[in-house]
Amino acid sequence: MALYLLKYPYRKILLPLAKKMVFIDPDLLGYLATIVAFATMFCYLYAQDRPYLLLISILLTLFRMTLNTIDGVIAIERGNLRLKGEIVNALPDRYSDIFILIGIALSPLCTPLLGILGISSMFLVSYTGMLSKAIGANWQHHGPLGKVERLILVMIFSFLEYLSLTGKIHMVCNLTYFMWLMILFIALGQITVYNRLKAQLRECRKLDWIKYRKLDKKAVVLYDSLTGNTEKAAKEAANALSLEALNIKDFINSDLSDYDLVILAAPHLGHKILPQNTIEFLENEHNIKQYALLLTSGMPVYRHISNKKCVNYFIERLGKKPISSINIKGYHAKAKTYKNRPNDNDLLDAYLFAQKVYKTLQQH
């Protein structure tokens, strides 16, 4: 997943070139990338007798990655993001992966069994990534063995195999480096399948909730946000309950006794614990029946300590424990940590958190 994100900076680098190539149909570049992968297959098939072909395969793989990146940039520049483009972007890529892995699997530098298992693992990774689209969820890119990671590993092990064939390094445990590559694909592939299925099941919980939810309790989501992180999370929690998140400053002197559930969202502020609006809210007497805490924090490690302080502060002021609490990562403006957080996954956490506490309330 981390390496997958590298394609976005790479897109920026290729942007000037893409603007000059905007007259080209981006689908053609996708097809060209598949042809490049097909040529790369023969480099692996004949690499044992001609080790230099492995160096060429690395260059061809880099060229393929560039084509796959630049076709997306051109599509964006042309405003040509069509549904057909998703198919053209996905299917040729699968063919390209097959060509490369067949070349490795059928070469004398690998065994057919490891090759078949490696290809199968790659297919399962790709399939589970796209499976979400069939149920109306997001395409899953969770790693550790995404497309970018696979290609980088292929290039690294191609270079190691080249060094081995030219006598510069030795095999490990009498296995070629391509055999180790397939073993790595098998192991990391299953971890990736697990991570993607786990993410899909989380999205299924959201989709099922939207379809079958029964909102028979009166609830409100109140937030106090300084940089916008907490507000985003609060709005997602409110969305789960078909509500609008409301700023806590408007409820400082309000009676909340009519609500069955109050979800309080606030950021950590280190030694200050909470924002002033939240402090003022807690200092007033409120007859809250049940509440849950949605807290955001952006300081690594210390966020766990400050979270405990915040929860305890709420307990002391309100005289009761929350139904549940959650600590979501958010960008820290001063420390510059957790950039681009809360992300989609964090916001899904907030959504599912509200769903969980509401269901808990219904059960009691």
User: Which range best describes the helical content: under 10%, 10-25%, 25-40%, 40-55%, 55-70% or over 70%?
Assistant: 55-70%
> Mean pLDDT score, rounded?
88
Major sheet attributes = 5 strands, parallel
- Supply Rg: 26 Å
- The number of helical elements comes to 11
Based on secondary structure, the structural category is alpha/beta
Strand content: 5-15%
Which residues form runs of ≥5 with pLDDT under 50? 1-6
Please give the order of strands in the largest beta sheet.
Answer: 2-1-3-4-5
What's the SSE pattern? HHHHHHHEHEEHEHEH
**Could you say which overall geometry the principal axes of the C-alpha atoms support?**
elongated
In total, the number of strands is 5
N-end to C-end Cα span: 40 Å
Sequence-ordered SSE layout with sheet pairings:
Elements: H1 7-20, H2 26-45, H3 52-77, H4 83-105, H5 112-134, H6 147-165, H7 177-212, E1 219-223, H8 229-240, E2 246-247, E3 261-267, H9 276-283, E4 291-297, H10 302-318, E5 325-329, H11 344-363
Parallel strand pairs: 1-2, 1-3, 3-4, 4-5
Helix pairs in contact: 1-3, 2-3, 2-4, 3-6, 4-5, 5-7, 6-7, 7-11, 8-11
Describe the structure.
This protein has 364 residues and is an alpha/beta fold. Helix content is 60%, strand content 7%. The protein has 11 helices and 5 strands. The protein has helices spanning 7-20, 26-45, 52-77, 83-105, 112-134, 147-165, 177-212, 229-240, 276-283, 302-318, 344-363; strands spanning 219-223, 246-247, 261-267, 291-297, 325-329. It has a 5-stranded parallel sheet, sandwiched between helices. Strand 4 (291-297), helix 10 and strand 5 form a beta-alpha-beta unit. Helix 8 packs across helix 11 (344-363). The protein is elongated. 38% of the residues are buried. Mean pLDDT is 88; it is low at 1-6.
